[in-house]
């Protein structure tokens, strides 16, 4: 009887330890998936300043009125918020994802100002059911490989380079392959993908961009 009791206690301890380990692994995986990780491809790299449920995205390389950001991965978790700083004089914030995973926007993505925001990820972009935008300017999400700047050159996510004299407004999207989809699952009931500015544009440009509800602008 004593040995059975000891065995039962031992088994309970082992089970509790196993459950704790599983929970820790799950939390680590969730944290890894819900991260914004800058890469090292810019002259002045992007900087993420984290706090509970909020990431401030600062830094980046400035060219005239354009501010460029580059990330290895870019995700916003459910209930989380990520906002780009909007320095004085910046009209366009252009961000690319150079890693191999799609971007999952399940929380709130924003800009602390009125600049237009561009998000480029050739591997795909998904906006979850509770995704929201707090952007005073226009917003473009695309699975293009690069954005063109007239005769000045490209800002490419597939062949990362530090932007040269890309001082003019973006003028074209370039696709080097069959474009990955953009999926929008957001709903009007949760305010969904709506812009806070007046007379602004919201564009999702990908291979068969899909929506499970209307997009509010």
Automatic annotation (TrEMBL):
NCBIfam families: adhes_NPXG (TIGR01901)
Domain Filamentous haemagglutinin FhaB/tRNA nuclease CdiA-like TPS: 39-150
Protein's name in the database: Filamentous hemagglutinin outer membrane protein
Entry-linked InterPro entries: FhaB/CdiA-like_TPS, Pectin_lyas_fold, Pectin_lyase_fold/virulence
Keywords: Signal
Residues in the signal sequence: 1-34
Organism expressing this protein natively: Nostoc commune NIES-4072
Domain of life: Bacteria
């Amino acid at each position: 009887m004593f040995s059975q009791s000891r065995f039962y206690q031992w088994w309970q301890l082992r089970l509790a330890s196993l459950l704790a380990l599983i929970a820790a692994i799950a939390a680590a995986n969730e944290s890894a998936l819900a991260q914004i990780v800058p890469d090292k491809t810019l002259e002045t790299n992007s900087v993420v300043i984290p706090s509970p449920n909020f990431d401030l995205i600062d830094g980046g390389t400035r060219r005239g009125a354009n501010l460029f950001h580059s990330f290895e991965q870019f995700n916003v978790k459910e209930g989380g918020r990520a906002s780009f700083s909007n320095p004085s004089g910046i009209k366009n914030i252009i961000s690319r994802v150079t890693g191999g995973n799609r971007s999952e926007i399940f929380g709130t993505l924003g800009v602390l100002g009125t600049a237009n925001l561009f998000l480029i990820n050739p591997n795909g972009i998904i906006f979850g059911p509770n995704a929201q935008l707090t952007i005073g300017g226009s917003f473009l999400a695309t699975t293009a490989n690069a954005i063109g700047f007239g005769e000045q050159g490209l800002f490419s996510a597939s062949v990362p380079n530090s932007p040269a004299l890309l001082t003019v407004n973006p003028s074209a999207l370039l696709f080097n392959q069959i474009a990955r989809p953009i999926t929008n699952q957001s709903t009007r009931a949760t305010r969904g993908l709506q812009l806070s500015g007046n007379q602004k544009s919201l564009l999702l440009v990908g291979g068969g961009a899909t929506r499970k509800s209307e997009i509010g602008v």
